Hints:
This protein has helices spanning 28-54, 57-73, and strands at residues 6-8, 15-17. It is mainly alpha-helical and 74 residues long. It has one domain (6-18, 26-37, 46-73). Strand 1 and strand 2 (15-17) form a beta hairpin. It starts with 5 loop residues before the first strand and ends with a helix. The relative contact order is 0.08. Bound molecules: zinc ion. The site of zinc ion has 6 residues, from loops.
Amino acid sequence: MFNSRFMPCxxxxxxxxxxxxxxxxxxxxxxxxxxxxGLRDEVAQLQTAVEGYLGTxxxxxxxxxxxxQVRATG
Length: 74
Ligand SMILES: [Zn+2]
């Protein structure tokens, strides 16, 4: 299946030469970018879930309660 000697690094997504003698080292910036990129679907799903929840009666109550608490402390 995978005959390529280059495989993507699971940490940073960089293509790593499997035949290379020198071990791959992740670039911190690249790894952070890659992991944020990997999380974007989860972030989008969370946002959709929160918006869906806020549309329910319980969510509207919590929104009201939160606003009330903000006013009380402010
Ligand atoms: Zn890497």
